[in-house]
Amino acid sequence: VLTDPIVPCGQILALHLSIPSIFFLRGLPCSFDLQATQCPDPPSYVPRTFTDNSDHMTFIQRMENLFLKSSESFLCNFAYLPFELLATDVLHRPVTMKELLSHGSIWLKRMDFVFEYPMPVMPNIVFIGGINCGKKK
Q1: What are phi and psi of 57, to 5 degrees?
Q2: What's the CA gap between 95 and 89, in Å, rounded?
Q3: Which domain holds residue 37?
Q4: Number of domains in the chain
Q5: In 3D, which of 23, 26, 6 has the Cα closest to residue 14?
Q6: How many Å from the N-terminal Cα to the C-terminal Cα in the chain?
Q7: Which family is annotated (predicted)?
Q8: Which of 62, 78, 105, 106 lies in the 20 to 30 Å Cα band around 21?
Q9: pLDDT value of residue 43
C-alpha cells in the first residue's frame, strides 16, 4: 500500500490485510516518522519543525526546542487518538500511533540534505528530494 502516514487509514488497512506499506511524505507532526523508525532525535541536535532553527543552535534555541518537543507529544497524542481507537477496533488489539507506523516497509521522504538539515536516519528511509523542485523558466 502506498500511503501518506498523516492520515494512517492506509496503514491500518495494510496491517489488517498483512501487506507491506510504503510511506510517501515530507515529514510528520510530532516526529512520529523518526520515532516509528527509531531514528535518533535528540532535541539538542535535531531542530523541531516550524522553528527555523539549524543544527547549530544557541542555548536558548535548544531550550525552545526541548519545550516544543515536550508539548508536541501531548498535543499529538490528543490529535491522533481517534486513529488509535480506529486501529484498535479494526485490528482487535490496542495499538499506539508509534506502533502503527513502525510497520512501514519503506519511507520515501520528499526532502533533501541540500535544503534541510542533516540528521541520522535508518536504512529504510529514502530521500527523494528533487521531486519538489519546479522546472526552471
Answers
A1: -110, 150
A2: 9
A3: 2-127
A4: 1
A5: 23
A6: 36
A7: Belongs to the UDP-glycosyltransferase family.
A8: 78
A9: 73
In terms of average pLDDT, the best of 12-16, 70-74, 114-118 is 12-16
Question: DSSP labels for 42-67?
Answer: -TTTSPPTTS---SS--HHHHHHHHH
Residues 90 and 71 sit within 8 Å (Cβ to Cβ): no
Residue with cell 538539515: 117
Q: Is 125 helix (H, G, I), strand (E, B) or coil?
A: strand
Cβ burial of 115 (10 Å; 0-12, 13-18, 19+) is exposed
Give the pLDDT confidence score for residue 116 in this predicted structure.
67
Phi, psi of 60 (to 5 degrees): -65, -40
Q: H helices within 1-137, ranges in order? A: 9-17, 32-36, 59-79, 81-91, 97-101
Phi/psi at 2 (5° precision): -90, 120
Asked if residue 9 belongs to a domain, the reply is yes
Is residue 135 in some structural domain?
A: no
